[in-house]
Amino acid sequence: MRYKIAPSLLAADFARLGDQVSAVDGVADMLHLDVMDGHFVPNISFGIPVIAALRDLTDLTFDCHIMTSNPTTYLAELAEAGVDLVTMHVEAVADPTRAASAARALGLSFGVVVSPPTPWAAVEPFVELCDLVLVMSVHPGFGGQAFMPEVLHKVEAARKWVDSHGLTTDIQIDGGISDKTAPSARDAGANVFVAGTAVFGADDPALAVAELRAVIEGVTGV
Ligand code: DX5
Ligand code: ZN
Q: Angle 48-55/17-24 helices, nearest 10 degrees?
């Protein structure tokens, strides 16, 4: 299994965003960008101009987790800003099939996200449309929350579905991921790990990525 680490910029020092992106450039696999509107979730983070401003600093895959109402509205601007992958909440997107086509027409990869209270059955019909399925392990809106192990059965269901259909869809987990919680998500079948606080809350974000990767890969003594 190829494991990928996606540091979440939400936990970065916003006064030094460029430096924070550079700190994980070359060590992480993706940069996770949480866009919030204060409507779909009760918080406002950063938006499309901030993403565009960071694009020239790195070749990291820009993984945009959009937590807004009517997320499809922003697809063209996200593509223009240099996003590579957009993930939309199944709770927010009216028609995931249309959203996936619209994303692909703009050259974007596409994924769906499932919040903790939403059952796996709400996502399953759309997995075949997706490059990635994101299982939230906290309620969306804020970094630094405690990991919810009760969502792991959805990661297991996703892994079973993807493997039994011969697909290579990534299965991402987001919320409360650290060296303590990542192994259980890996064992359930996740292969992409979002980590905000565990990376940007550390003194050395690059080392934190390396350590998290080592724990997930089962290597000791980094
Ligand atoms: C929450 C965001 C997460 C958040 C994770 O809505 O989707 O990506 O940044 O932060 P940590 O890793 O601190 O739980
Ligand atoms: Zn996120």
A: 50
